[in-house]
Amino acid sequence: MKRTPFLNFLALFLLNIPLSISFNANAAPPIVTKHTKADGGKLVGKIVESPGNVGVSFATIALLASKDSSLASGSVADENGAFSIANVTPGKYVLRVTNMGYQTLFVPNINVSAEANLLDLGNITILPEAQKLNEVIVKGEKSMIVDDIDKKIVNIGKDMLATSNNVSDLLEKVPAVSLDENGNPQVRGKGNVVVLIDGKPSNLYGSDLPTILQSFPANLIERIDVMTTPSAKYEGEGASGVIDIITKKTKIRGTNGGLRASLGSKNNHNASGNISYRLGKVGVNASLSGQTRNMTWKRNLSRDNFISENTSHLEQTGTGGNKGKNAFGRIGVNYDINDKNSLEVGVNYSRDQSRNNSNLLNETSFSSGNATEKFNRLNNSKGNGENLNFNLDYRKKFDDKDHQLTFTSSYSLGESDGESYYNQESEIDSLMRNQQNLRDNKRHSLFLNSDYTWPITKKATLEVGLRSRMSANDNTNSFYNMSKETGSYVFDPNISNVFGYKDATYTGFMTFSQKTDLWGMRAGLRVTDYNQDINQISINRAFNVHFLTLVPSLALTRKLGETAQLKLNYSRRVQRPEADWLNPYTDVSDPRNIQSGNPSLKPEFTHKAEMGYSNYEASGGWGPSLFMDYSNNAITRIRTIDETGISLTQFANVGRELSYGLETDFSQTLFEVLKINGSGRVYRSEVVSQVAQIDNRTWSYSGNLNAFVTLPADFKASAYINYEGPRAIAQGTREGVFVANMGIRKELLEKKATLSFNVQDIFLSRAYKSQLNTATYSQNSLWQQTNRLVNLTFQYRFGKISASGGDDA
Questions:
Q1: What is the DSSP string of 307-331?
Q2: What are the protein's UniProt keywords (predicted)?
């Protein structure tokens, strides 16, 4: 790959926060020993946890003066928990012990006399943060929505988990987020969303995002961050925004885990299990999940073609089904080298199988009176894919709070293959055909990232980072037509394709944050050097694309009280063409509506601005805002018709897209038995292109609502509704989509288990309709899922200690 010079950044390499507080009156009596040391007394002891009095590594010990709690001295325990504090002036003290994952502990009444210079405190027992004495404490759930300076944080609680099998189910319950007909996330009803998993690109886990999201068990997720105007720290891609899915991390000692099994209608089943264990400096977590999927659908298309004098009308009616199986497994090990350095390694593996079939009836009539062309096209396809991902992360903490250096790396490799067989039946001999399509894809990618956070003062922070991502993709699509003479398949070079794709992205960013009692500010700049090599091997054509982009961001906040604030945000975004959008392979699975990539695509640039108010407390709150998105050189699908009435759909750069409106999200607990959350928006959307003769403008509205109700006998019911209103697309209008789900659950076995019953798409209303109108054709189309999903799910949680951010057993 062609390399170009890039900016060189110099990273400056220049703790503990008490999580809960307890007093210990049960420390062993101190052993006093005469000592002749003239320069002060000495304290020794050992920090342990029960059972077994196991030493706790690297606990922080502070010696406080009894009279005013000022810091007199301190130390850090060694890897076995032993500590010593020398040169202690005679007097009365309190010993404070802190360590990540444990309650802060105070040992009072420590007397250091002038005569007895060595004081052995013996074993000092500290308790995990979720445990007090011998009880398990169930933590209160966090506020569902937290409004940060440049993102909305949605904490995943028990209510959301009980009605969600996977990450796709969770995303539908997140304010402002929805899924399109293929399962890809949308923000404010629009695609082009970057999805990260723990800050890393989701494509490291596989090539098909909907499959990745369906494979990830919901109970592994701690929170979901939604950024509609992301700061320069995050990916510059994603015209609609960034979604970062944060998984649970085990920070405290103990064992915890869970099992989940779900039986669903029409063979939609899934099962998963996860376990985490931590002792001393080492923590291990592992999970495994499997799923079977079965979806049926129908589609209709009606099109009038008037590109020539002999106008024609196409009518299509189709049905089909998609079946699939997938498995996902992950294992991770984290190791605390000492109190300031930690290391984590992990491996993820996924495998997917799909089996699809469809039946598409085509009927074309002509105004000239020519005979109607009618044929039925049968399709049977199957595919297999697998992906392997390795992660290595390092974190270094410095003495002052929030001062840290992180390094993350990830390497991923995967491959997929598939084959499709088309049998076209017709009474017209020229329309009869049998075809075969064989597909093969191999890919690998490397991701490297380093972030340095420096709290310059208590209220000012500088963060800098370097990031590089390199990937390679090799696609082979071979198409064959069956010879009527020999009955064997003959290779068709006209629609076959061998496509090679490589890209390399080198990025540096810097953000500066400043806070006062009333004001907050975060400004940033992201610089990206992007190289793209495209090789159309089948036609011996190769070319390189290179560009440099600047992505600035700015966020301002003004406090109006303890929880209320005003916000003003701006961010510039870039949408670079994806490999599938560029691949010129022609998909003829529907011979009347073919699709192809466009290797001439250019990047799309978007300016995003928001101004809003938010007020969130533990019981709930709301956050209304005004927003505007303006895209230049916008990438969208364009459909053209040739004189035979066949359409070609490609991604293309059109003129501009503009969207502006009012949005609000909210969450609230009412009467202690009802929790609601959701979002709603009213907005104007415009798509304009003088070159393509497009001028489409509409007002639209959308919203979603989640409700969780506590019923007698410890039952809980839930309901979810989502409506995406009509909106303008490049050549017409996408009609509104309504979805409703509901469920009921009961906790069992002293709240260690949950049994739930859920129904998705109650009214079978998940129908996607569009209307296209141009100078050469007019078209109405429908795609709709036709099977309602009903499932019964049992979950069991075990362990006395909860994972960070998770639900307690």
A1: SSSS-EEEEEEEEEEEEEEEEEEEE
A2: Cell outer membrane, Membrane, Receptor, Signal, Transmembrane, Transmembrane beta strand, Transport
Q: In degrees rounded to 5, what are phi and psi of residue 702?
A: -160, 165
Mean pLDDT of 227-249: 87
Distance between CA atoms of 623 and 565, rounded to whole angstroms?
A: 9
Q: What is the residue whose two structure tokens read 């020993």? A: 33
Q: Return phi, psi of residue 500, to 5°.
A: -115, 140
What would the two tokens of residue 82 be?
A: 């032993």
Contact 718, 757 (CB under 8 A): no
Could you tell me which residues are beta bridge partners of residue 798?
A: 257
Closest CA to 444 of 474, 466, 404: 474
Burial of 712 (0-12, 13-18, 19+ CB in 10 A): exposed
Question: How confident is residue 800, by pLDDT bands cut at 50, 70 and 90?
Answer: low
Q: Which residues contact 725 (CB under 8 A, 6 or more apart)?
A: 189, 700, 701, 702, 736
Distance CA 286, CA 337 (A): 21
CA dihedral 772, 585, 601, 471 (to 10 degrees): 130
Domains of the chain: 21-135 (2.60.40.1120), 255-798 (2.40.170.20)
pLDDT in tens, 409-440: 999 999 999 999 999 999 998 899 999 999 99
- The pLDDT of residue 463 is 96
- For 83-124, how does the pLDDT look when each residue is reduced to its tens digit (9 = 90+)? 989 888 888 888 989 876 678 888 888 888 877 678 888 899
DSSP state of 143: P
Do 488 and 481 touch, CB atoms closer than 8 A? Answer: no
Torsional sign, CA 47, 53, 55, 56: negative
What is the chain's Cα-based Rg? 30
Q: CB–CB of 170/164 below 8 Å? A: yes
Contacts of residue 596, defined as CB under 8 A and 6 or more positions apart, other chains included, come to 584, 585, 586, 587, 648, 649, 650
- Which of 3-30 are b and which e, b meaning 16 or more Cβ less than 10 Å from the residue's Cβ? eeebeeeeeeeebbebbeeeebeebeeb
Q: What is the DSSP string of 399-422?
A: SSTT-EEEEEEEEEEEEEEEEEEE
The Cα 806–Cα 809 span in angstroms is 9
458 pLDDT tier (thresholds 50, 70, 90): confident
On the question of pLDDT at 151 being above 60, the answer is: yes
Whether residue 53 is predicted with pLDDT greater than 70 in this model: the reply is yes
Which pair of structure tokens corresponds to residue 779? 């078209």
| 12-27 confidence digits (pLDDT tens) | 222 232 323 333 434 4
pTM summary value: 0.77
- SS3 sequence of 705-734: EEEEEEEHHHEEEEEEEEEECCEEECCEEE
Give burial (CB, 10 Å; 0-12/13-18/19+) of 97: buried
Q: Hey, what are 60's tokens?
A: 């922080």
Residue 270 contacts residue 316 (beta carbons within 8 Å): no
Continuous segment of H or E residues that includes residue 582: helix 579-582
Burial class (CB in 10 A: 0-12, 13-18, 19+), 562: exposed
Q: How does the average pLDDT of the chain come out, rounded?
A: 85
Q: Which pairs with CB-CB distance under 8 Å and at least 24 residues apart come from 775-778?
A: 775/693, 776/305, 776/306, 776/307, 776/640, 776/641, 777/303, 777/304, 777/305, 777/306, 777/307, 777/641, 777/647, 778/303, 778/304, 778/306
CA-wise closest residue to 740 among 718, 756, 757: 718
Is it the case that residue 798 has pLDDT exceeding 80? yes
Contact 148, 226 (CB under 8 A): no
Under a CB-based contact definition with an 8 Å cutoff, are residues 564 and 243 in contact? no
Residues in the chain: 809
- pLDDT band for position 251 (cuts 50, 70, 90): low
